[in-house]
Amino acid sequence: MDLLPRSPSEFGSASYWDRFFRQRGQRPFEWYGAFPELCPVLHKYVRPRDKVLVVGCGNSELSEQMYDMGMCKDIVNIDISNAVIRQMQERSQNKRPKMSYLLMDMLQMDFPDAQFQVVLDKGTLDAILTDEQEATLAKVDKMFAEISRVLQVGGRYLCFSLAQTHVLKKAVEYFSQEGWVVRVHQVAGSRDKQQFVLPVFVYVMTKFRKILGSAPQILEICSEEQDKLMRVESAEQLVAAVKDRQHYALLCSQLSKMPCGEQVSLDLCDKESRRPRYTLHVVDSPLVKPSQDNHFAIFIIPQGRETEWLFGTEEGRRQLASSAGFRRLVTVALHREQHYEGMASIQAELSAKVMELAPPGLPARQQVPFLSVGGDIGVRMVRHCDTSPLSGEYVVEDVKGDGTCYFRRLIFLCNRNVVQSEARLMAPVPFPGQKKRRKDKKKPSPAEPPAAIDKSYLCCEHHKAMVAGLCLLGNPDSLPGVPLAVLVVGLGGGSLPLFVHDYFLQAHVTVVEIDPSMLEVATHWFSFSQGDRMKVHISDGLDYVAKLASEAPAHYDAIMFDVDSKDLMVGMSCPPPAFVEKPFLQKVKTILKPEGVFVLNLVCRDAQLKKSVVATLRDVFPLLYARRIEGEVNEILFCQPSPEGQRELSELGARAQVLERALRQPGCPWDSSYVLADMLQAVKIL
């Protein structure tokens, strides 16, 4: 039995609907959900004394159930199908005396003006507005005009719809221009039904007298919990908000039916601020053998650790899911702009939402565990936030790492998953909620650093490798006491130039930084300071090197580039492309001593671009070593201007070991986890 129309235009044909209902018989056909699902929204907008008009009623039981449940009694149902009207009259005439069914075209209704308080439309608009052809739009305009005519001022037009973009936009634009208040609800629970993958929405258009001149549009969307309203500025924003919910429903539907081949990520926003509160990644591990209790788990990433390889990369999350032993793991990252009470409150907040991401085959009433590192959500305190004209918004924050260590980090919010600079703190940081000693009478001011920076510890693996590369200079045993001229382009928090300054006792370090805000941050928050052997120049590194190349060739023993790119559209985030163009690299070579070393931190995800950069470097520098940082995109390139300085790879580790012994001087603390030889074990010659 084929009940589908031959063309969309047949949805507006009385003969099609007569044939449809004759073939379907007495079985009710419920467009877009039954009464229990629609009841919460109907209760908000339909009062017992309202006179209700249902347009395109079909043989739905909605009116009957509204009547029988006492929601309202005075209900008039109309439809263009004579067959269905006769059927419905027979069904209700003896049971529901105050409810009527009339054969009538809603495009030309016989009712007087302002006859109803509510007009109810369950799928009728969707059936008519099948395209955006001129004739179709004219028919819809006529429908809206008739609904407007028969509604009283203050009356509500409730339209249940799948909210296709052209349908929603047409309804919103028409009624908002008429001065009506337009509100959109999502029907709760509709995503769990099998009739439609996409959720059902209700447009609630409330009639107001049209004000002459320009009146502000009132457009609102209700939260999924139906307890909060969010006002939007335009029809486009309303359509976009609905699209977000449709995409989420589609995603949940797909995840409930099959494993996801690629990791899926989504943001859950705060109800008040509408800013991201949680970032979720759905990771499936099909190779994990199924058992009774390993279907699904949630992993809360401790605050401040979302940038670590295990949590911040696809490969790391895949390893985490596999080692956790669950077939589907949802990792949850917490955002620094938000406040969290603790694991219990997060679990209560997320429990219902994460179940929408459950895998296929999850047993009913299965207890889903919430996991974390050490069972807590970590600690994070934002110490300082500001905006730089060059770097944009940034924050300085203190976080608790693995174990008892605390770290200070600089984050550029344009790339919030990347730690720009990091330093270990010498003493535990007082965080809110922690007990203080009795003698600590004053609360720490958020404007002041609470603890000293441990300058002896290089947090970043690529900084350790860059320092280890200095063993390529001369005799590593005497290097710490030999006068060295070192140029560092890119200051950040200042950890790299500070370490070179403090451990190479005769080194004169010149730092070039384009952003003056970074010098303020490094000085105030990372204990950076200038002196006789440490000078900072606020300048573009390109200009500084070019000027120096024209004035003082062969000036530096070592040149280090650790400078980020502000252009996030390029597949290389460090350095900016101009820093690895051949003419500029030739200038770098000009200011480097013949036996010197140029150390470059390269972060490039574009394989072809990386290949091109390496080829250009090789053209300029005959001797090129590379050290890939494990678990990161960073690769450290050591470039020397003369091939005569080439050493066996096995020799590099030995030289680094000698340099480390020389650097471990009395009075200079050295972290035992920092082994220079390890930094050069995986070096290769390019």
Q: Can you describe what's shown?
A:
By secondary structure, the protein is α/β, with parallel strands linked by helices. It has 3 domains: 8-251, Vaccinia Virus protein VP39 (Rossmann fold); 260-363, no CATH class; 466-685, Rossmann fold. The chain contains 19 helices and 27 strands. The strands form 4 sheets. Strands 3-2-1-4-5-7-6-8-9 form a 9-stranded mixed β-sheet, with helices on both faces. Strands 19, 20, 21, 22, 23, 24, 25, 26 and 27 form a 9-stranded mixed β-sheet that branches. The chain has a 5-stranded mixed β-sheet with strand order 10-11-13-12-14, sandwiched between helices. A hairpin with a 6-residue loop joins strand 17 (406-412) and strand 18 (419-424).
Give a short synopsis of this structure:
This protein is of the alpha/beta class and 686 residues long.
List the helices and strands and how they pair.
Blueprint: H1 14-24, H2 35-45, E1 52-55, H3 62-68, E2 75-79, H4 82-92, E3 100-103, E4 116-122, H5 124-128, H6 134-150, E5 151-161, H7 165-177, E6 181-186, E7 201-206, E8 218-222, E9 229-232, H8 235-257, E10 264-269, E11 276-284, E12 296-300, H9 309-312, H10 314-324, E13 328-334, H11 343-355, E14 370-372, E15 380-388, E16 392-400, E17 406-412, E18 419-424, H12 461-468, E19 484-489, H13 495-503, E20 507-513, H14 516-525, E21 534-538, H15 541-551, E22 556-561, E23 572-574, H16 582-590, E24 592-604, H17 607-620, E25 623-628, E26 634-640, H18 649-663, H19 676-679, E27 684-685
Parallel strand pairs: 1-2, 1-4, 2-3, 4-5, 6-8, 12-13, 12-14, 19-20, 19-22, 20-21, 22-24
Antiparallel strand pairs: 5-7, 6-7, 8-9, 10-11, 11-13, 15-16, 16-17, 17-18, 23-24, 24-26, 25-26, 25-27
Helix pairs in contact: 7-8, 15-16, 16-17
